[in-house]
């Protein structure tokens, strides 16, 4: 029972490669039922490697090896060995040419890693370790080489043949075939290789760089989607300009290509010069995409573009350093989005994700440092911790060093390491050298898992006008790290007087400033800060802009939060005060004794605070919408020692209804004021209006069960909708209601959009997220819908991924939710392990539930671990979850 079928890879075991590749020439010939790959490389023994002799070991999976030649001579079969994961050649000289011919079957590749087919076209996904499914190779990020790629295919079905770099030759071949040759002048690791072959249409545009070079920009899609690429193209051009202006970075190749594919394991991939994208992050039209889709496209297009420098030109030494490129690139795309749209709303959404998803991961059996120390399957580490907490680390450096030193450090990093594969230390060292600061304590953020908790105590001495803060930090244990050390925390604060005036500028003391805020550097387990020159006790606004990824131990009274929600000059903190207040109120409702549950409702002061928000003069309507939106059930539950899903659900919805009833007139007024049925524009103002109307309708719909006027409001919102944003707002509201309206709208929607896969994903997802009583049964039925397929990750995420986040129904006391998802995961694991492992996320925190649920969740996890032929992906997630490390409430 306790055997470990998969051995972990450890950071401490890292060794430089024994061989380096001078160049690689690939000839990839696509045939009807298979593909032939001839890989010719020039290799040299690495003088810096520990071992100076020995065999050549190449990685390879799911390959048929047809031929191996060394310096032109066939290698005898007894001079090499293959395993399911490798090719080992016994004797090789120090410098040689190697030729490897392999056969593969892309049509059978359901894992979507390596070369596979999606809706007729061929495409690749090589990060992290997909290249080894194309040929035997030194498939590791610290082996960089120049790639030359020749593609051959049948001309009529595959007129478009793409690879990285510049197009250098093309021509016809016998029997209706043709070829294209691509040369990528920039050395790169194999994970950045890409190939696309298909019958694709394109839109083309250009961008002139600041040094005057004209770059051709192309987006390739299926012909019927050609009209949905304009937003992606506009986003790309904005990103290119922004990176020049803000980071001084210019694009390097002459051509930049993006291809949209229907079947994709994640969002997109930054392959050099040839990004491959999940169609979800390319295609948009007002009829088919929501405002959130538009924003997502803008962010992901920018993210992949920014990787050209942070990831491609400077890459990772090994996969443990993943956050070197991902954390940094996420931070850059967050800066970009903040500059494009409402900066406060952007920050709010980042913090929502951190708190709701990353903090939860950090307190679960899957907690790991931003730079993990070991993994069984690297694909399991493309996590919110590596990405989003990783981005917070870069943001903290930005805050600590200040803008000027940060950009100097960044420039130094690029200048030092262009063309290299480096580590997180290298990045932090460049920041240290450029700022003259010792940043070695900062490395703890990379190595220590878990979310630090800050406790803050205030003191006030009226006579001296002395205000003091005692700040202490403590990080709870995580699996494998029982003891924690303090980390350096940049704490941005502000002080307000009773009228809400910001006193920060007039404070005496030698506190460092960052814009309008004071910067406190918390480095010890406990530390004191003093402020003088005050005439009355100030109001503290702390952790402004969420300056560090920490939990704030609640020390503020509700009155204080209500005050800040109206007066704080930091817009993020204003939102945060309202959000924290809502959280406290919801927690009260969940934890109060059932005996007096009916008597006690929501406090008047909270209702008043929310009402003054609704009536406030906030002109950024997106921000107002965010301030009104309640924390989700999935957020609130983090504060509960033991989670009772039924009680949480009831309390949550009761609180929401009570608030909605109190605010009804105000919400209706706002709704009527901003409801617009004019032509769709993706502008800040219009997005804000739609978002605000959406929040209002969501509250109002919670009262609609016995109110025909409100049901009619949902119906008319749907019927008058001139774009997908409004249509989804109405459908989401209607789906919470059981009855005719829901059925009518769902049927109408399906009928109208069944030919649009990305829109149908929304149809599946909205049903899986419903709070209505019959949700499990509906999801079960949808599994048998003709449009449901386990082979399409977007569809699986829409139905199963969304259902897993539907807290109440997934945790239904009957266990029916668990059984449904387990069944799907076990079946999916044989097809697509990466996605199967992701779907297991909702089982991970089983210890937080009651005995019966624990038993059921554990049985599910066991069935995954014990499944014959389980993938390393699913095994690692399920096995770690079962592991003996505890999970505490935060
Ligand atoms: N680098 C890719 C992610 C690859 C995931 C492999 N399982 C997308 C991105 O972060 O830009
Ligand atoms: Zn990325």
UniProtKB/TrEMBL annotation:
Cofactor(s) needed for function: Zn(2+)
Keywords from the UniProt entry: Aminopeptidase, Hydrolase, Metal-binding, Metalloprotease, Protease, Zinc
Domain Peptidase M1 membrane alanine aminopeptidase: 232-445
GO molecular function: aminopeptidase activity
Residue ranges of domain Peptidase M1 alanyl aminopeptidase Ig-like fold in the record: 450-553
EC number(s) given by UniProt: 3.4.11.2
CDD domains, per the entry: M1_APN
Reaction equation(s) it catalyzes: Release of an N-terminal amino acid, Xaa-|-Yaa- from a peptide, amide or arylamide. Xaa is preferably Ala, but may be most amino acids including Pro (slow action). When a terminal hydrophobic residue is followed by a prolyl residue, the two may be released as an intact Xaa-Pro dipeptide
Zinc among keywords: yes
Gene3D superfamilies: 2.60.40.1840, 3.30.2010.30, Neutral Protease Domain 2, Peptidase M1, alanyl aminopeptidase, C-terminal domain, tricorn interacting facor f3 domain
Protein name per the record: Aminopeptidase N
Gene source species: Desulfofustis limnaeus
Source taxonomy: Bacteria, Pseudomonadati, Thermodesulfobacteriota, Desulfobulbia, Desulfobulbales
The encoding gene: pepN
């Amino acid at each position: 029972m306790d055997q470990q079928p998969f051995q972990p890879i450890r950071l401490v075991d890292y060794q430089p490669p024994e061989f380096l590749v001078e160049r690689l020439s690939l000839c990839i010939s696509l045939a009807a039922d298979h593909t032939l790959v001839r890989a010719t490389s020039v290799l040299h023994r690495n003088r810096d490697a520990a071992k100076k002799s020995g065999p050549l070991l190449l990685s390879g999976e799911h390959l048929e090896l047809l031929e191996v030649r060394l310096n032109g001579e066939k290698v005898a079969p007894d001079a090499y060995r293959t395993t399911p994961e490798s090719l080992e050649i016994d004797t090789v000289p120090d410098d040689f040419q190697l030729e490897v011919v392999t056969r593969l079957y892309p049509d059978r590749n359901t894992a979507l890693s390596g070369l596979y087919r999606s809706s007729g076209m061929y495409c690749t996904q090589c990060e992290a370790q997909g290249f080894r499914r194309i040929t035997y190779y030194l498939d590791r990020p610290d082996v960089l080489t120049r790639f030359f790629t020749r593609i051959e295919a049948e001309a009529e079905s595959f007129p478009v043949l793409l690879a990285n770099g510049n197009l250098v030759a093309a021509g016809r071949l016998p029997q209706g075939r043709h070829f294209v040759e691509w040369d990528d002048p920039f050395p790169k690791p194999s994970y950045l290789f890409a190939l696309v072959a298909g019958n694709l249409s394109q839109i083309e545009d250009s961008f002139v760089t600041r040094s005057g070079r004209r770059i051709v920009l192309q987006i390739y899609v299926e012909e019927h989607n050609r009209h949905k690429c304009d937003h992606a193209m506009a986003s790309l051009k904005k990103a290119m300009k922004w990176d020049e202006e803000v980071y001084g970075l210019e694009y390097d190749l002459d051509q930049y290509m993006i291809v949209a594919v229907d079947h994709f394991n994640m969002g997109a991939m930054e392959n050099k010069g040839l990004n491959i994208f999940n169609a979800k992050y390319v295609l948009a039209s007002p009829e088919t995409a929501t405002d959130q889709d538009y924003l997502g496209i803008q962010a992901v297009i920018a993210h992949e573009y920014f990787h050209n420098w942070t990831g491609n030109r400077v890459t990772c030494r090994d996969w443990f350093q993943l956050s070197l490129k991902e954390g940094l690139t996420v931070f850059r795309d967050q800066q970009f989005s903040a500059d494009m749209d409402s900066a406060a709303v952007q920050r709010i959404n980042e913090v929502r994700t951190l708190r709701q998803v990353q903090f939860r991961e950090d307190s679960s059996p899957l907690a790991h440092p931003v730079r993990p120390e070991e993994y069984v399957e690297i694909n399991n580490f493309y996590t919110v911790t590596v990405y989003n907490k990783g981005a917070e680390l870069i943001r903290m450096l930005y805050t600590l060093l200040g803008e000027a030193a940060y950009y100097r450090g960044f420039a130094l990093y690029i200048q030092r390491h262009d063309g290299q594969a480096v580590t997180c230390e290298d990045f932090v060292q460049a920041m240290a050298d450029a700022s003259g600061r010792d940043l070695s304590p900062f490395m703890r953020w990379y190595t220590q898992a878990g979310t630090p908790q800050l406790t803050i105590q205030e003191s006030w001495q009226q006579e001296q006008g002395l205000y003091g803060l005692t700040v202490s930090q403590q990080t709870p244990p995580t699996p494998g790290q029982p003891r924690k050390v303090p980390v350096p925390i940049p704490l941005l604060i502000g002080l307000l007087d009773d009228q809400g005036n910001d006193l920060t500028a007039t404070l005496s003391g030698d506190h460092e400033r960052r814009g309008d805020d004071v910067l406190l550097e918390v480095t010890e387990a406990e530390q004191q800060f003093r402020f003088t020159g005050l005439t009355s006790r100030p109001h503290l606004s702390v952790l402004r802009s969420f300056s560090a990824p920490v939990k704030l131990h609640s020390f503020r009274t509700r009155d204080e939060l209500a005050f800040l929600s109206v007066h704080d000059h930091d817009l993020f903190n204003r939102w945060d005060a309202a959000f924290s207040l809502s959280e406290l109120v919801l927690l009260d409702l969940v934890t109060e004794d059932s005996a007096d549950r009916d008597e006690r409702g929501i406090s008047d002061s909270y209702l008043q605070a929310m009402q003054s928000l609704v009536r406030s003069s906030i002109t950024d309507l997106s921000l107002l919408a965010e301030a009104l939106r309640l924390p989700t059930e999935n957020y609130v539950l983090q504060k509960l020692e033991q989670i009772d899903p039924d009680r949480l659900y009831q309390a949550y919805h009761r609180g929401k209804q009570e608030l909605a009833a109190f605010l009804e007139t105000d919400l209706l007024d706002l709704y009527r004021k901003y409801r617009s049925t004019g032509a769709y524009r993706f502008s800040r103002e219009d997005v804000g209006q739609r978002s605000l109307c959406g929040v209002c309708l969501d509250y109002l719909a919670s009262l609609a069960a016995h109110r025909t006027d409100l049901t009619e409001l949902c119906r008319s919102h749907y019927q008058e909708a001139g774009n997908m944003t409004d249509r989804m707002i109405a459908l989401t509201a209607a789906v919470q209601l059981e009855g005719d309206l829901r059925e009518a709208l769902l049927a109408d929607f399906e009928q109208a959009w069944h030919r649009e896969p990305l829109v149908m994903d929304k149809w599946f997802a909205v049903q899986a997220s419903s709070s209505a009583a019959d949700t499990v049964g509906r999801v079960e039925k949808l599994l048998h819908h003709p449009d449901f397929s386990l082979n399409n990750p977007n569809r699986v995420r829409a139905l199963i991924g969304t259902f897993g986040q539907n807290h109440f129904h997934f945790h239904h006391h009957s266990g029916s939710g668990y059984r449904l998802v387990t069944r799907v995961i076990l079946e999916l694991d044989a097809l697509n392990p990466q996605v199967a492992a992701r779907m297991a996320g909702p089982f991970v925190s089983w210890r937080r539930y009651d005995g019966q649920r624990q038993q059921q969740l554990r049985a599910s996890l066991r069935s995954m671990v014990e499944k014959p032929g389980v993938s390393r992906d699913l095994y690692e997630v399920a096995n770690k979850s079962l592991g003996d490390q505890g999970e505490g409430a935060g």
